Amino acid sequence: MAHTPEILLGQDELSAVVERLGRELSERHDDGVVMIAVLRGSVPFLADLVRVMTIRTSVDFVALSPYTPGTGRVRLVMDVATNIEGKHVVIVEDIVDTGLTSAFLIGELQRRNPASVSLCTLVDRPARRVVPVPIDHTGVQIEDRFVIGYGLDHEGRYRNLQVLAIADPTVLAEDPDAYVEALYGA
Ligand code: IMP
Q: What is the DSSP letter of 177?
């Protein structure tokens, strides 16, 4: 059965959010910064963000294993190639949910003696936070709703949507393609 999701942020709203974050980051780090994006959800956000920043930036990527429910354990499965010692680093996240991924990554990067580590997330969902995470730059804060689009997926689907939409997890559990027709006009 086809379902229509609620659009949380349309293209213009997303652009405005990204521009504001780009401005904040450029003002804060006028001597340049290493942007470290968490694969794969933050790729569209990173691509748009760096293009509105007006300072010297380099980009790099990490991949982390999803935490095992119950243990909260996160593992680095792909590391950055950049030596971040003495550099200002910004972690770029799609969403901070439990906080386990970001908290792990902040700790991991801090051990490498960077000049600073800050966290920039497109979406902050504090309702399900398990560990406190200091977020320096937040795009939007949302209630306890599941979101798809603009990098965020469900089982690999919906990442390439130009908008951020709210989806019903019970609908997706029953049919992962439930929103395909409404969103892609298939
Ligand atoms: P954490 O729970 O803060 O560690 O977030 C782990 C990861 O889960 C995020 O980086 C996302 O990739 C994914 N995630 C959490 N909530 C959502 C959501 O609402 N939609 C899609 N992915 C999500």
A: T
